């Protein structure tokens, strides 16, 4: 796609991601992915995610700019948050920095960066919006 760019940056800020009031990820080692037409996404090392809260799902998607994504759901207090986490476990050439890292739909989770709560972005992945194929 002409004019489409992706930029990866190391992000040393403290990023905390909560689902249903429970911190699921906390890191200062995220890779920030900036992609044309999308909000920035933080890709978090698995070591900084409470993996015991994640449940792999059958869902997958393909992105021509990153590769094939796998998805996980999170269950908190009996509420299942379906397919809100994804990873490119074996991304395409040039995207190796995000390999095996996890990203969250910021539209569906609470994000705090350096102590400041972030507003949820409004995208095609916002609850109630027309669904899109891949992040």
Task: Walk me through this protein's architecture.
- This protein is mainly beta.
- The chain has a single domain, classed as Metal Binding Protein, Guanine Nucleotide Exchange Factor, Chain A (Beta Complex), CATH 2.170.150.
- It is built from no helices and eleven strands.
- The strands form three sheets. The protein has a four-stranded antiparallel sheet, with no helix packed on it. The chain has a four-stranded antiparallel sheet with strand order 6-7-8-9, with no helix packed on it.
- The radius of gyration is 14 Å and the shape is globular.
- The two termini are 16 Å apart.
In short:
By secondary structure, the protein is an all-beta fold.
CATH architecture: Beta Complex
Strand content: over 45%
**CATH level 4 superfamily:** Domain of unknown function (DUF427)
- Tally the beta strands: 11
SSE inventory with pairings:
Elements: E1 6-11, E2 15-19, E3 22-27, E4 30-35, E5 41-43, E6 54-63, E7 67-76, E8 79-87, E9 103-104, E10 110-113, E11 116-117
Antiparallel strand pairs: 1-4, 2-3, 2-10, 4-5, 6-7, 7-8, 8-9, 10-11
């Amino acid at each position: 796609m002409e004019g489409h760019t992706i930029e990866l940056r190391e992000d040393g800020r403290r990023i905390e991601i909560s689902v249903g009031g429970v911190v699921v990820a906390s890191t200062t080692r995220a890779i920030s992915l900036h992609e044309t037409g999308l909000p920035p996404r933080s890709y978090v090392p698995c070591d900084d995610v409470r993996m015991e809260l994640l449940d792999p799902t059958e869902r997958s998607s393909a992105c021509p700019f990153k590769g094939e994504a796998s998805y996980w759901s999170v269950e908190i207090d009996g509420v299942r948050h379906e397919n809100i986490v994804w990873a490119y476990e074996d991304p395409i050439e040039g995207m190796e920095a995000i390999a095996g890292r996890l990203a969250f739909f910021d539209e569906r989770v609470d994000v705090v960066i350096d102590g400041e709560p972030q507003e949820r972005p409004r995208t095609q992945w916002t609850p109630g919006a027309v669904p899109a194929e891949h992040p």
